[in-house]
Structure formats: C-alpha cells, structure tokens
Amino acid sequence: MDKFKDLDPLLHSQLRLAVVSLLLSVESAEFVFIKEKTGATAGNLSVQLDKLNTAGYIIIEKSFKGKKPLTTCKITKKGIDAFEQYVINLKQYINK
C-alpha cells in the first residue's frame, strides 16, 4: 500500500470516486439519480456523501419537491481540484 500514499484516501474509495466522477459531468444531481447510477444502497451512499461534504468536495442541498424531501449534490472547486490531482497521481503509478 505504500505506493498509493500520494493518492487521496477520500477518493480512493470506489463509491466516492464514482460519485465525484459523476458530479463532474453534471451541474448537480439528485440523490436518487446518484443512487441509481452507482448502484449503492441509500444508507451507504448517505455516509459517503457526508464524507465528501465534510471534506468540502461536494455541497449537499436539502429542499422539498412538493411534499417530498429532495437532496441535491454539486461538486465544488476543491472537489474538482482533488479529482484532477488524484488522476495525475494515478497516472504516475501507471507510467512507472
């Protein structure tokens, strides 16, 4: 595992990496959309979104659509920068 020390441990999780990758391609995404695209359970996705939010990689907005609660996620500049650095670091390992 030493050779992966430069990889962001937050993004080195399959689900968190999938979420960030997905959010890079959209302006924002609803929780249900992210859940469907990643195949994650609601509970696991909630935990991983919270970790990304705490790190400042995404913003989570809670509102209502009619009477139903609506959770929307959006990637931040910090999240974009972290993803880009992760990809650069990963390429360094591939090219060694």
UniProtKB/TrEMBL annotation:
Domain of life: Bacteria
Domain Winged helix DNA-binding: 15-94
Gene3D superfamilies in the cross-refs: Winged helix-like DNA-binding domain superfamily/Winged helix DNA-binding domain
InterPro entries (UniProt xref): WH-like_DNA-bd_sf (IPR036388), WH_DNA-bd_dom (IPR027395), WH_DNA-bd_sf (IPR036390)
Name of this protein: Transcriptional regulator
Annotated organism of origin: Splendidivirga corallicola
